[in-house]
Amino acid sequence: MDAFSAAIDPALCPLCGQPNRCAMQAEQAIGQAQPPCWCTGVEFTPELLAQVPPAARRQACICRTCAEKASAQN
Ligand SMILES: [Zn+2]
């Protein structure tokens, strides 16, 4: 593991650095089933996903604030 990939925290939004509160991540972290994640109810635009650094893609979820901000712009 290099220093850069070690910096990716799956619990933090790769765009703003705030906790993303992803239910799927929480499920892994605490080992208990969670209700469906809020992210299943919002739309992630290709423009938003393109802002995620390549190293963080498929590692860390975007937080709800960033997702709603992006969808409000459309
Ligand atoms: Zn965010």
The arrangement of helices and strands along the chain is HHHH
Radius of gyration: 13 Å
Biggest sheet features: none
Oligomerization status of the protein chains: single chain
Explain this structure.
The structure is a single chain. With 74 residues, the protein is mostly helical. The protein has one domain. It is built from four helices and no strands. The protein has helices at residues 3-6, 23-30, 46-50, 64-72. The longest helix is centred in the C-terminal third of the chain and has 9 residues, at 64-72. It is globular. The protein starts with a helix and ends with a helix. The structure holds zinc ion. Zinc ion (ZN) is lined by residues 13, 15-16, 18, 62-63, 65-66.
Give a quick summary of the entry.
This protein is mainly α. It is 35% helix and 0% strand.
Topology summary:
Elements: H1 3-6, H2 23-30, H3 46-50, H4 64-72
Characteristic terms for this protein:
binds zinc ion, mainly alpha, globular, 74 residues, 0% strand
